[in-house]
Automatic annotation (TrEMBL):
It comes from Thermomonas aquatica. One of its GO terms (biological process) is iron-sulfur cluster assembly. InterPro entries: TrmE/GcvT-like, YgfZ/GCV_T_CS, YgfZ/GcvT. This is Folate-binding protein YgfZ. Keywords: Transit peptide.
Length: 284
C-alpha cells in the first residue's frame, strides 16, 4: 500500500461502519489459525477469505474478511463490529504469542458499483488509492477500497450496497444478532467462511458435529417485503412460526428459517414476505 494514497475516484462512496483490525507479529498466522473458524494457514500472501470468531458454544461473535499480506501481517475487515472492542476481547487469548492487535482507525472503507481495477476474486491489490477488494457476485460488480477517508457520503448508495450484501447471503450482525447463531444457521458454507478440517478453534466441536451429523435444521432465506420489517421479527408461514428476521435493508429481508419450512408466501407480523433466491458468487 502506498505511503501517500491518492484521493478516491469520484464514483467511490464512503461505507460507514466498517473497521479494520490489524494482527501483526511472528505468530500472527498461528494466533489467527487457533482462534478463527476458517483455515488462515491455507491463504497465500495477497489473498483474503471470509472468516469469523465463535464462542465456545459455536455462536458467531463477529464475521469478517481476513486479508493476509504476509506471514506476519493480517487485517480483519469488520462490517459491523468495532475493531477496538474485538481487539480487547482477543487480547485475553494472546498469552505468550508474539502478536500485536491494533485497530487501524486511519483506514476507512469506500465502495463502488464497478469492477476492481486490479483485485480479482480472493486476491486483493495495493493500488494508489488503497487496498482494493473484489466484492462482486452474481448481482453485479462491486469493489471496496481501504484507505484514507476521501470518498463522499452517499446514503442511497450505502443502502444499495447493504442490500446487495443481504441478497448475496452476507449476514450483517448487530446488537441482538451477535452470539445468537451458529455458522450453519447463517448458511456460511455459501461463503466458504468456516472449516471443518483444519483443527481446533473455539466452537469447532459444535461446527464439526453439526456438519458431519447433518444436524443443521435452520439456514438463511431471503425475502422481498411489502412493508417495513424489524430485525428480530418472527417469520410465519401457514400459520406457524418458521424463523426470525436477521437483518433488513429496504424491502430485502434476510432471515434464519427452518430448512424444512414450506416454500410459500410468509409474513412478519402484518407484512407479507415473498421468498426469492439468494444470489451466489460472493464466496472467496
Amino acid at each position: 500500500m502506498s505511503d501517500n494514497p491518492q484521493a478516491a475516484p469520484p464514483q467511490e462512496f464512503r461505507l460507514p461502519g466498517h473497521d479494520v483490525l490489524a494482527i501483526t507479529g511472528r505468530d500472527a498466522v498461528a494466533f489467527a489459525q487457533a482462534q478463527f473458524m476458517n483455515d488462515v494457514a491455507a491463504l497465500a500472501d495477497g489473498q483474503w477469505q471470509w472468516n469469523g470468531w465463535l464462542t465456545p458454544k459455536g455462536r458467531v461473535i463477529a464475521l469478517f474478511a481476513l486479508l493476509k499480506f504476509d506471514a506476519e501481517t493480517l487485517w480483519l475487515l469488520l462490517p459491523d463490529a468495532a475493531a477496538a472492542d474485538l481487539a480487547a476481547k482477543l487480547q485475553r487469548y494472546v498469552f505468550r504469542s508474539k502478536v500485536v492487535l491494533a485497530a487501524r482507525g486511519e483506514l476507512h472503507a469506500s465502495g463502488a458499483f464497478a469492477a476492481p481495477a486490479q483485485a480479482s476474486g480472493a486476491r486483493f491489490a495495493a493500488t494508489e488509492y488503497g487496498i482494493e477488494l473484489d466484492f462482486g457476485g452474481d448481482g453485479g460488480a462491486r469493489r471496496m477500497r481501504l484507505g484514507p477517508a476521501t470518498a463522499p457520503d452517499a446514503a442511497a448508495a450505502v443502502a444499495q450496497w447493504r442490500r446487495s450484501d443481504l441478497q448475496h447471503g452476507l449476514p450483517r450482525l448487530r446488537d441482538a444478532q451477535v452470539e445468537a447463531w451458529t455458522p450453519q444457521q447463517l448458511s456460511l458454507e455459501r461463503l466458504r467462511a468456516f472449516s471443518v478440517k483444519k483443527g481446533c478453534y473455539p466452537g469447532q466441536e459444535i461446527v464439526a458435529r453439526t456438519h458431519f451429523l447433518g444436524q443443521a435444521k435452520r439456514g438463511l432465506a431471503l425475502f422481498d417485503a411489502d412493508g417495513t420489517v424489524a430485525d428480530g421479527a418472527a417469520v410465519e408461514a401457514g400459520g406457524h412460526a418458521i424463523g426470525s428476521v436477521l437483518c433488513v435493508q429496504d424491502d430485502a429481508v434476510l432471515a434464519v428459517v427452518a430448512l424444512d419450512a414450506p416454500g410459500q408466501a410468509s409474513r412478519a407480523g402484518e407484512v407479507a414476505l415473498r421468498p426469492v433466491p439468494l444470489l451466489a458468487g460472493l464466496a472467496r
